[in-house]
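Lecture 7 notes: from sequence to structure.

We start with a single chain of 379 residues. Read the sequence below before looking at the structure.
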Amino acid sequence: MISKTIKAHSTEAIIAKIENAMSDGFKPTLAIVFSSIIQDWKTIRNVLGEKEIAIFGSTTSGEFIDGDIEEGSVAIMLININPEHFKLMFYETADQSTYENAKQLGIEGKSTFKNPAFLVLSGWLTEDGENIVDGLIEGFGNEVTIFGGMAGDDLKLEGPLVFDSKNESTHGLLGLILNQDKIDVKGIATCGWKPIGTSKTITKSEGNIVYTIDDKPALDVIMKYLGTEVDFSGDKEIVTQIGAYYPLQMEREGSVPVMRTAMFANQQDRSLICAGHVPQGSKIKFSLPPDFDVIEKVVDECNELRNQHIEQADALIMFSCISRHLSFGLLLSEEIEKVQQVWDAPMLGFFTYGEFGKSQTGKHEFHNNTCCVVALKEK
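Now the structure, written as tokens:
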């Protein structure tokens, strides 16, 4: 399996790079397309379709190949994978619930391959991250392998979407089913964030809305504890000023914490709207802003994955939370570069509104503020 990565800031330039990548006889069968929502991804999709290249695509909040981070661009990985070794499935959540669609994806994977893995992209379904995981488990079984991310829209927070060769939707669920008997699929969800302070209790919540922490309004607790003030003049201030820098860590017995990012705040009831469920009764801690140690922890866990499970890779895909980009700044290029160097393989990635993957001691689940790395190797 050969993979090539390209990126550009215009439709004309990316089409020229597609042609150039194929000029030596390279015949890709699958294109992973991560595009800024401002780009003409429909024209790019048509060009790939004319070449009979299947598409696994998403809009983003930033794109990268290797450690070269861009905004407002198109980044593509072209892969000459055997078409018999993968299958694409697209579901529109207007027809059924996200849970039911994910369940059908799991059933489809089980009936297609004896040993499938699922790469998933989802549109504006932030509240349904856990439902996607739960549905896949219901349809396939507890041993399901899931990696992926939620689409972005350059932090407009208006309507990210996913697309394949024929379909697109802001509420779509796109699954790439891979035959693990032919393609080794290994990955890890890692964040490196350090907890701070004592454990606190979510005393009132509903789904992804946190109303009170230790019986006090959630927003007031965070602002007082962190000693910070937030200007709520716009819609994005909570994620850019608090969510990115001070994510919540939900503690679990026998497993690493799972991260939750505050996306919005309700000034009337002082609640927080998070990018994922925060069950009532959960124990949480706040997090320290990132430093070099966070990057080293991520790289160390990737090295462990390589040493224990997949020594070589033909392609790397990274789903990294937009909050990491906001909080890390220029440091994130170093993280991406170091992860790519672990396997020294072509890498493609984008900044997401949520990530799917498995931590070292956890199960496959939905994450925030996390870096999810997937390595692919043809057997």
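The two ends are 9 Å apart (CA to CA). Keep this in mind for problem set 3.
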